[in-house]
Specification:
single chain, 140 residues, mainly alpha, Pectate Lyase C-like
């Protein structure tokens, strides 16, 4: 939901946009996203891996249980996440370029975007959140 201040910012002339407190808006929005992530991930029993900002480039995570993990801002470039459970994992800003998602379960992943999926490699067995579509190149 966009705040009243956010709606007002949409109507500002260019000079007003340049003077807008973008960092302040980002900090407030990010705090809400972090709180929502923590609340959702609290439903996962047991330890929740914290890989915020981690360099997992090329990591071999095939079949890993990453349920409830924080992968916010992690570099997963070329990582093998095939058959991994990413249930309620926070993927905010995670770099999934060339990450192998074949057979991975992202059906309940948090904050995964279409652009992240488009940059990754998956297949027909990759579980996706209902609002996102399987990239065409995954079928090739």
């Amino acid at each position: 939901m966009i705040s009243a201040a956010g709606l007002a910012a949409l109507e500002l002339p260019a000079a007003g946009l340049l003077a807008a407190d973008v960092d302040g808006h980002w900090r407030r929005a990010n705090a809400l996203l972090v709180a929502a992530s923590e609340l959702a991930r609290s439903n996962v029993k047991g330890p929740k891996p914290d890989y915020r900002g981690a360099d997992l480039t090329g990591a071999r995570l095939a079949g890993a249980d990453l349920a409830g993990a924080s992968l916010r801002g992690a570099s997963l470039i070329g990582a093998d996440l095939s058959r991994a459970s990413l249930r309620l994992a926070d993927l905010t800003g995670a770099d999934l370029r060339d990450a192998g998602l074949r057979g991975a379960d992202l059906t309940q992943s948090l904050f995964v975007t279409q652009a992240q999926l488009d940059a990754a490699a998956g297949d027909a067995s990759t579980g996706l959140p209902p609002a996102l579509r399987r990239p065409a190149h995954w079928d090739a």
